[in-house]
């Protein structure tokens, strides 16, 4: 019995020691190190219940070559304040701090990470006030702060309403900026100034930011911008401000917006666009004439999952067919039931998606699928089927056979030149009679107009005073 208190004491010591070890790990975490070779190292500090940034790294990180790549991950921890990170060797360094509780970032937080090209701060509690240019300033030298190598910055899923106008002062190499899922609502003046200062920006994600318009000058100076995502916002039309970057923009994503139609103004001046996606727009009903005409270099078009899209004008691609560039067209999961046979040159496509629509399998669709070769463009396992008429319901459109489809006869006879010898006597008589009737009608009309003119002239002629009776003049 005397040994029982001793056993309890041992258990308590073990628990205290374990608890102490866990608390110590929060400040000096035991991270998982993966070294592929001297040029690639991954330091995984994720899911370690860390609350503070460590003051030093494991010794193994110093073995990486100066030209090597380093990935450091801290996601799914409990970090609130980002303090200054210790120095990391390597040429290209990526740091991931997403999915913490970050609400503060100290000045010079990344000063020691000279080669940091990728920074992920998404899914935290960062506000616009927290984001300052001082966060990204490099080492202080010769009276000024140097710039850092940052190329990709992910600020998605935070609490940002606005950006500081000088935020990107020390990040001249920034090419990809993700602001998605922030309550921005309005691109105010200082935010526009901040964006326009990132002159090397190539990718901009503004999806799910609750904006409904973009000022015309918002992209001024962004002469390298290639990809914009405006999905899940409140746009009722495609922003006209995109025209400012029309010469460089190659990819546009415009999903989940309350637009009702697309027309010839929607993509004006976007002549270098390569890929366009307009999907999941609940209110989109119609694509009008010449909608895609400005897109002279378009290769991939995704018009899918628009549950109310019922009509695409047969001239939607007007002007493009002479110099056809489209290779892939996806029209899946809309509310379409018919397409015009001359909508586009079906045989020039490489991939065509049409599943999930209520197709009326008529002569036009049969012509598109068989005669024009669209049936060979479907991906395996993605062949659309008929919804109506009932006799074809559920049958793949490539399997239908319509016994009789009327076609226009385009075999016209050669036109013959006209000569007087082709005219019969009755034709001559009728022609003379017609000319005489026209001449007689013109003569009668001329005489009538002449009489009316003389009558009006006589009525309006003044009476000479010299002809009035003398007694009338005296009176």
From TrEMBL:
InterPro entries: Leu-rich_rpt, Leu-rich_rpt_4, Leu-rich_rpt_typical-subtyp, LRR_dom_sf. The keyword Repeat applies. SMART domains: LRR_TYP (SM00369). SUPFAM superfamilies: L domain-like. The chain crosses the membrane at residues 428-449. GO terms for cellular component: extracellular matrix; extracellular space. Keywords: Leucine-rich repeat, Membrane, Repeat, Signal, Transmembrane, Transmembrane helix. Residues 1-21 form the signal peptide. The keyword Signal applies. This is Chondroadherin-like. It comes from Galleria mellonella. The gene is LOC113511069.
């Amino acid at each position: 019995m005397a040994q029982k208190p001793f056993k309890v004491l041992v258990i308590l010591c073990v628990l205290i020691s374990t608890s102490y070890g866990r608390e110590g790990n929060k400040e000096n975490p035991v991270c998982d190190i993966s070294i592929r070779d001297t040029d690639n190292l991954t330091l995984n500090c994720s899911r370690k219940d860390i609350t503070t940034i460590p003051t030093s790294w494991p010794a193994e990180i110093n073995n990486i070559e100066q030209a090597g790549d380093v990935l450091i991950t801290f996601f799914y921890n409990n970090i609130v304040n980002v303090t200054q990170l210790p120095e990391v060797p390597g040429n290209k360094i990526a740091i991931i701090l997403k999915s913490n509780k970050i609400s503060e970032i100290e000045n010079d937080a990344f000063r020691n990470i000279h080669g940091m090209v990728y920074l992920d701060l998404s899914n935290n509690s960062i506000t616009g006030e927290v984001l300052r240019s001082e966060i990204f300033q490099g080492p202080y030298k010769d009276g000024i702060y140097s710039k850092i190598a940052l190329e990709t910055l992910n600020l998605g899923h935070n609490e940002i309403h606005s950006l500081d106008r000088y935020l990107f002062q020390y990040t001249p190499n920034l090419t990809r900026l993700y602001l998605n899922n922030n309550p921005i609502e309005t691109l105010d003046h200082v935010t526009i100034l901040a964006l326009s200062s990132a002159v090397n920006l190539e990718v901009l994600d503004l999806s799910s930011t609750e904006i409904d318009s973009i000022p015309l000058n918002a992209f001024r100076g962004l002469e390298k911008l290639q990809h914009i995502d405006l999905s899940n916002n409140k746009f009722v039309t495609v922003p006209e401000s995109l025209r400012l970057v029309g010469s460089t923009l190659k990819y546009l994503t415009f999903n989940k917006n309350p637009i009702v139609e697309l027309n010839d103004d929607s993509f004006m001046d976007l002549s270098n666009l390569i890929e366009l996606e307009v999907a999941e727009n609940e209110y989109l009903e119609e694509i009008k004439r010449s909608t895609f005409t400005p897109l002279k270099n378009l290769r991939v078009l995704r018009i899918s999952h628009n549950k109310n899209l019922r009509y695409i004008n047969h001239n939607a691609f007007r002007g493009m067919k002479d110099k056809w560039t489209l290779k892939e067209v996806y029209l899946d999961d809309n509310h379409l039931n018919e397409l015009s046979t001359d909508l586009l040159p079906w045989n020039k496509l490489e991939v065509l998606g049409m599943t999930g629509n209520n197709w009326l399998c008529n002569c036009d669709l049969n012509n598109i699928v068989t005669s024009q070769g669209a049936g060979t463009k479907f991906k395996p396992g993605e062949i659309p089927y008929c919804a109506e008429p009932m006799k074809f319901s559920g049958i793949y459109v490539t399997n239908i056979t319509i016994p009789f489809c009327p076609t226009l006869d385009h075999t016209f006879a050669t036109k013959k030149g006209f000569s007087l010898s082709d005219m019969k006597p009755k034709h001559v008589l009728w022609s003379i009679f017609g000319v005489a009737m026209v001449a007689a009608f013109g003569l009668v009309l001329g005489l009538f107009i002449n009489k009316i003119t003389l009558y009006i002239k006589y009525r309006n002629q003044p009476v000479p005073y010299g002809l009035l009776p003398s007694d009338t003049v005296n009176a």
